[in-house]
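tool=predict chain=A
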Amino acid sequence: MKHLMNHSVDIYRLKSKQGEPDYGVPSPIEYYYSDEPDLVDVKCHVKRQGTPTIEPGQPFHEVLETYKLYFPKGFEIKEKDKIVFQGVEFYSNIPFSFRTHVEVEAWRVRKQ
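tool=predict ok
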C-alpha cells in the first residue's frame, strides 16, 4: 500500500476555546483552525469520488465535491480535520481503519 501514497497533504486539527464567563454565564465554545498546519507533507493518495453535486442557490450555486483519501496504516486522521491538497481545502468525515490502510471521505463546498 505504501507505493500508492503518491500525494502529500497538510492537515489542520479542529481546535476549540472557551472565552471568559460573563456575569457567571459561560461563554459559547469557539471552534477554529490554526493558521499553521499541525501536520505537514503527510503522504497519502487522493481520489475524486463520482461527479460533483450542484445545489441551486441565489446568487451562486453550491457545488459539493467528495474525495476519498487513503493514508498509511496507523495514521490518525480525525473527523472535521481540514486537509489542504494543492491549495484546495477539504474537510474529513469519519475515518475507517483497515488492515493495510486508513480511509476517509472528505468533502468540499464551493460557490459558483
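The longest strand covers residues 39-55. The CA atoms of residues 53 and 64 lie 5 Å apart.
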